[in-house]
Amino acid sequence: MANSLEVGGLKVKEELRGLVQDEIAPGTGVEAESFWISLNSIVRDLAPKNRQLLNKRKHLQQQIDAWCAARCGQPFNVEEYTAFLTEIGYLEPECGDFQVSTANVDREIAAVSGPQLVVPLDNARYALNATNARWGSLYDALYGTDVIAEDDGAEKREGYNPRRGAKVIARTQAFLDQTVALDYGKFSDVEEFWLQESGGKQRLVAKLRGDRVAGLAQPDKFVGYISKESGLASIFLRNNELHIEIQIDRSHPIGKLDSAGVKDVVLEAAVTTIQDCEDSVAAVDAADKVKIYRNWNGIMKGGLEATFERSSREICRRLNADKAFTAPDGQSVTLPGRSLLLVRNVGIHMYTDAVTTTDGREIPEGFLDAMVTSLAALHDLRGNGKHTNSRTGSVYIVKPKMHGTEEVAATIELFERVEDALRLKRNTLKIGIMDEERRTTVNLKNAIRAARERIVFINTGFLDRTGDEIHTSMELGPMLPKTEIKNQPWLNAYENQNVDVGIKTGLVGRAQIGKGMWTMPEEMRKMVETKMAHPEAGANTAWVPSPTAATLHALHYHQLNVAQKQAELASRKRARIEEILTAPIVKRILTPEKFKTNWTITPKAFSVT
User: Fold this and answer.
1) Which of 114, 254, 359, 472 has the most CB within a 10 Å radius?
2) How far apart are CA 379 and CA 289, in angstroms?
3) In this predicted structure, what is the pLDDT of residue 448?
4) Cα separation of 99 and 506, whole Å?
């Protein structure tokens, strides 16, 4: 165990104190000593309220348990249950209509629909890979996964399989035909791309087999190019605000086999990434927290590196540079080479001994996360690093496991205190509210209102939300198996309400409305076949477990314009709270063999290769 040193009225583990003093604070304009004094002030003032909120959780649950136990085995009466929850203050009177006013939000959150990658921040290599997953090779994603079947000689094997490669190219060309179609013919017919001046601008032209010539069916989807002496090296297209890069190189092993010399098609993929301090990592002690904070600081300063061996070669992973190209009007254009990063802090229920009061009491871990991750983000805000994360001067913090409006309001108060401590403008720290606890679900509109000047994110998730559903209601009797619970009316009502409330409160154009994780990283074909359901539900982002999954999920956002879908859903009748509150209990007689568990608890998949 590391020694603790007293600083600023707190006892801080020596390794953590050194990290803040020597690596994070320099260059931020915040002295390490004043940092700890400010944290001590926050702990003194807000820790009692944090404990009160946790005690209220416990008290509410005790009342719910008693109510449910008294009615175990009886027919469930949702009207009676709703009245009870209102009486004890669990279900709040819903506030009137309002619109969120979050300002200075990066376009990746406010205007672009696309995949969101979640990655454990304790692994530097994974964190870098995820940050760099803004762009992904569609050829690689298709070739290396089960999206392309291994039949008809197209199996994956050591070395390149041309038959499999041909299927990948055909699948990619079909995608291009669907999303950025030519005005004549298909991409499989193209023998050469070139530029042709028209009205002072360059337009994209394709020579097809049989000496035919085609342009784009929608010419404005051509947004730029990179040229070389022999012709075009890259073509940049845009569809539904997402970019596609067609890379051309006739000397490349793949390009020389392609009639148009295309060596790869690269998609804008993980538009946003959550660097996770919470449930994808095991951060138990000060050493664990230091590792996480050091990686986040390294990313914010732009210098994080990870070295590893592959095929007897040493590889050093760094942050990708931006992509630069020329627009049709001759202007220079730069697109971010990296995903826009959010950081997920822990929930209010977590406490840590990495920092304690002078009498040895652990402090709320979320207080420490908020202060340290925001301090590190100052390097980005002040332009100290090699790269820029937020171009609007914001820090994006995802806050999990909050129960209802009071806990959201308490988090907002914490963020205000952190801003004061670090001399940040009010509302610099933005908040993502995870709709994963039932008390937040049924009071979602009120919770959003409490964060209306900061909110940039709400989402849903099956596993956490169902876990809390079971925990809350289990005294009523046995819960339905996992396979059946997915088809219950409450779950569909929960998913719909999240989108409906998000649209109603003005999140469109200011914040993300997200859906949950795909937890089977090896089953990419199934993901491609089914995860379209998330944008179809009106979500402008959804979680994926790997850069490859991000590239494949990006296909869905090209196929469907989420902004248009949200406009359609705006007039939909909102889900009923009574449906959401209907407990998923078993209503049939169970035989002894049916008592065997139908739930398999598995860790969330965060595979980032």
Assistant:
1) 114
2) 19
3) 98
4) 5
Give the residue carrying structure tokens 């998609």. Answer: 267
Could you tell me how many residues make up the chain? 609
Q: In this structure, are residues 594 and 566 in contact, taking their beta carbons and an 8 Å threshold?
A: no
pLDDT of amino acid 593 = 63
Place of tokens 């289990």: 474
User: Can you tell me whether residue 539 is helix, strand or coil?
Assistant: coil
Please determine, for residue 606, whether its predicted confidence score (pLDDT) is greater than 50: no
Q: Other CB atoms closer than 10 Å to residue 595's CB: what's the count?
A: 9
The helix (H) or strand (E) run that includes residue 202 is strand 201-208
Gyration radius (Cα) of the chain, Å: 26
What's the rounded mean pLDDT across residues 358-365? 97
Residues 374/361, Cβ–Cβ less than 8 Å: no
CA–CA separation, 308 vs 104, rounded Å?
38
Q: In this structure, which amino acid lies at residue 520? A: M
DSSP readout, 226-256?
EEETTEEEEEEEEETTEEEEEEE-TTSTTGG
The superfamily (CATH) of domain 4-134+272-594 is: Malate synthase, domain 3 (3.20.20.360)
pTM passes above 0.85: yes
Which residues are within 8 A (CB) of 179 and not within 5 positions of it... i.e. 6 or more apart?
239, 244, 558, 559
**Residue 325 token pair:** 């190209």
What pLDDT is recorded for position 396?
A: 99
Residues 6+ apart with CB under 8 A from 402: 347, 348, 408, 411, 433, 434, 437, 440, 447
Token pair of 86, please?
A: 């209102």
The tokens describing 8, both together, are: 């600023």
Pure H helices in 149-251 = 162-179
Q: Where are the domains of the chain?
A: 4-134+272-594, 135-268
Class of domain 135-268: mainly beta
d(CA 204, CA 222) in angstroms, rounded, equals 7
Say if residues 368 and 301 touch (Cβ distance below 8 Å). no
CA atoms within 13 A on the CB side of 315: 11
Torsional class of 238: left (φ above 0), alpha (ψ -120 to 50), beta (otherwise): beta
With contact defined as beta carbons under 8 Å apart, do 557 and 565 qualify?
no
